[in-house]
Write a structure and sequence with these properties.
8 helices, 73% helix, 159 residues, single chain, mainly alpha, 0% strand
Length: 159
């Protein structure tokens, strides 16, 4: 899993994150694949894969297992919640709780970002914690700034 962040350029991550917007504004029809590419499925999955790849890489570099399993579980729960929300219809019993489910998803994002920040901080200790948190919490920013730094870190002398 850690090879994903090392092999995939940040531009590819960004294009995948913005694919729904690009397809919507260009009015391209993909038939049965519209639900995957024109909804929030693709960005959520790309964000989760990027986060899991980042965790795996940083865990290998820091040789520490603190918060790793908890972060992965939180990301998995977050993905499940975010992917199921569009399927909760008005006749579903969970419809009354949809706002609380959305808030739970946001809280999971924040808590997992805190844990991932502590994992990445062990390797990129010179980076400020608040900016590192923002890079992880706002995954598009992290894909743009943190992915090239991780790739350069792997190519460099790692000091």
């Amino acid at each position: 899993m850690k090879q994903i962040i090392l092999k995939v350029p940040s531009l590819v991550f960004l294009l995948l994150m913005f694919t729904p917007l690009i397809l919507t504004f260009s009015e391209i029809s993909l038939g049965g694949m519209d639900i995957i590419f024109k909804t929030r499925f693709l960005p959520i999955l790309v964000s989760a894969i990027w986060s899991l790849s980042l965790i795996d890489y940083m865990t290998g570099e820091s040789k520490s297992d603190q918060y790793v399993m908890l972060s992965k579980i939180l990301i998995l729960c977050q993905v499940i919640i975010e992917l199921l929300i569009p399927f909760i219809s008005e006749d579903n019993l969970l419809y009354e709780w949809i706002l609380l489910i959305e808030i739970l998803g946001i809280l999971l994002i924040i808590v997992s970002s805190i844990f991932i920040t502590s994992i990445v901080q062990k390797v990129f200790y010179a980076r400020t914690t608040w900016f590192l948190f923002l890079e992880i919490w706002i995954t598009v920013l992290g894909m743009f700034t943190l992915t090239p730094d991780v790739q350069n870190w792997e190519k460099g002398d790692k000091t």
